[in-house]
Amino acid sequence: MECRRILLVHPHADTREMYTEFLSHRGLHIVAVGDGNDALRAAADADLIVTDINVPGIDGIELITRLRNDERMKRTPIIVLTAWVFPNDRMRAEDAGCDVCLSMPCLPDDLLHQIRLLLKVVGEMRPTIVTLKGAEALGPAVFNPSRTTRSGHPRRHRTTSK
Predict the structure, then answer these.
(1) Which of 29, 56, 92, 157 has the most CB atoms lying inside 10 A of its own CB?
(2) CB of 64 within 8 A of CB of 81?
(3) Across the chain, what does the average pLDDT equal?
(4) What range does the domain containing 104 cover?
């Protein structure tokens, strides 16, 4: 896998450090920040974003909402990695436009697996979007409107950690 830029947003420095070290050793370039305001400034350069819901500044839900409303960031995959596991929190994250919700504690290998899956999906989607010349070029269901979040953003897939 080529070096991809991952924005990691988490309020706890030890958590950021653990995931950063693990993911960096797997060939990913990690930019780690501790609050939503810094995340909003750094997001434009990210290939994928991993965020907690409970971050200082603008919270993770507001961060996702703002990113999904930014034309440049609409298709950037977003993973929510949080200890907030109540169904309402998960639903709010999905409604805002996250692609995957993972519950903490989450093994670094599980996070890496989800990152690779989402980057693969995005990589496979980009050539289709770029070379699209007409509806017949779509072939079998490239976009299924029934697979969107409640706010209308494409849902790639959803999972939870073990």
Answers:
(1) 92
(2) no
(3) 80
(4) 5-147
